[in-house]
């Protein structure tokens, strides 16, 4: 989890949404579930970062896109306290490119609104994630050992055949 890499905790959580893909109710539920899993209060530290606004039809601004895209996207923006920023992917790093400084200003405003507080990640959640990672690693090692034992019992795999062990992790959008 990236949150443990920025002690004492993140001051902002950016939810990146491309305007070129429809934001569905499934994605809304996934965002709600993932932020909810971090513990209470995550939404007050969250902001939507729209990318690819250069792909919007000429004359359509991000506000219109939010209003016309559907309830799922409107819900996300509202849940983030109507905090959002838009990036035009065609603008390159030039002197007149103010996208990043404007984003940083908005993040600083959010920090001020939160009185300088940062989001404290629930230690129990981090412990559960670490235990899940360890369980997956132990299962992978057990499967490898099982494959080695099977090879020893039958004299190894036939020539030209590859024995693979795979551990799958299911992640929702």
Automatic annotation (TrEMBL):
Pfam families: AIG1 (PF04548)
Keyword Plastid part of the UniProt annotation: no
Domain of life from the UniProt record: Eukaryota
Annotated keywords: Coiled coil, GTP-binding, Nucleotide-binding
Coiled coil region boundaries: 126-153
GO molecular function terms noted in the UniProt entry: GTP binding
Keyword Nucleotide-binding: yes
Family the entry assigns: Belongs to the TRAFAC class TrmE-Era-EngA-EngB-Septin-like GTPase superfamily. AIG1/Toc34/Toc159-like paraseptin GTPase family. IAN subfamily.
Protein name per its UniProtKB record: AIG1-type G domain-containing protein
Species in which this protein is naturally found: Seriola lalandi dorsalis
């Amino acid at each position: 989890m990236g949150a443990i890499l920025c002690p004492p905790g993140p001051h902002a959580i950016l939810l990146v949404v491309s305007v070129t893909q429809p934001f569905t109710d499934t994605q809304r539920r996934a965002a709600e579930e993932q932020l909810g899993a971090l513990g209470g209060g995550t939404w007050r530290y969250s902001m939507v970062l729209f990318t690819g606004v250069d792909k919007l039809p000429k004359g359509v601004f991000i506000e219109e896109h939010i209003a016309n895209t559907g309830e799922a996207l409107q819900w996300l923006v509202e849940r983030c306290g109507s905090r959002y920023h838009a990036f035009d992917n065609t603008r390159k790093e030039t002197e007149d490119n103010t996208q990043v400084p404007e984003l940083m200003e908005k993040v600083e405003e959010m920090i001020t609104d939160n009185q300088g507080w940062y989001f404290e990640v629930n230690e129990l959640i981090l412990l559960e994630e670490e235990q899940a990672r360890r369980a997956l690693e132990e299962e992978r090692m057990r499967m490898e050992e099982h494959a080695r034992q099977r090879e020893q019992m039958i004299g190894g795999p036939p020539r030209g055949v590859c024995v693979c062990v795979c551990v799958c992790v299911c992640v929702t959008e």
